[in-house]
Known about the structure:
Layout: H1 3-25, H2 30-44, H3 47-58, H4 66-101, H5 108-119, E1 123-126, E2 129-134, E3 137-140, H6 141-150, H7 183-198
Antiparallel strand pairs: 1-2, 2-3
Amino acid sequence: MTEDQVLALISTALAAAKSEIMSEVTRSNQGLAASLSKEIKKLHTPQPAVEEDEATNSSGEGKLTLKALQQQIADLTTQLEAKDKKAFEAEKTSAIASLIAASGTQQKSTLQKLFALQYGDSIKKEGDSWFFEKDGTAQTLDAVFKSYLESEEGSIFLPPSTVDGSGSKETKAVVPPTTQASGDSISNALVPLSQLVMSGQL
Length: 202
């Protein structure tokens, strides 16, 4: 229904209402008739302004047309959706950061970027709980993060183990064997020495 049709319908309704009211007024006292007449005039007062606005709109100025109003509503809806998305992304980033902060991992900033890049698009929120959903399967965010740290890529962010080092097997320091001279070797060393003493060379 166009604006002209709406205005015509309103004018018809007002005219019918006026006619009915005036019929009732004629059966009441003159004071009430005068009062109602004034009220009816007030109802009709905005009418010239509406007609004037229609004339102004026809020249491209004045109040917004219906199409422009619809565009405004669409723009506002888009802005609200963008605002909601931005707020969700901020919450998601905070949830991942909190998880990483409590994990005891290294290079947390890099870890957060890689984890968000790989899993971020599939991270959802329901109530106060965050979870990862892909191919119809859902896991808690904590479970997915732990699984990532167990992967080859994620394990590089784990601190070196005090037992195994950075993932290598435990190695023990090699202690060279202590050589102790046997009694025979000592005796053999003393024989040439005694010969030198007897010959007067010492």
